[in-house]
Amino acid sequence: MDYQVEWSTIAAANFGYNHYRHRTFVMAYKKNTKLAETGVSLFKIVSKYANSSPGSRYPKPIDMSEAQADYTRVEDTRAIKLRTKRLNALGNSVVNDIVFAILDSLAKIELGEHKAKLSSINQIDF
After folding, report:
1. pTM above 0.90, yes or no
2. What is the largest CA-CA distance in the chain?
3. Residue 126 within any structural domain of the chain
């Protein structure tokens, strides 16, 4: 089929979120694309975006102010319709910043904006 495939597991905590929420991302692209021709892993480029420590973007519950804690707390959870189904759906969601990092990296490569930086990117790991 002439596709190149790579995958990586990325944690939301690496993007500054207060939870780990590991998700596996799989990318497949044609071997005649600029990404394939560079020989660089897309996820090594994405790792440049993952430079935050857990809780730096959104505070961990222990670091929240009283107002933040009140905003995130629900007094009567039974008052929320379909609460369990909503929580299950949220628990399986992806952090938008990770998706942005993947798509932005891909676009920059395909548009030729990463040419000068590709040699140093091979040194980066998650």
Report:
1. no
2. 56
3. no
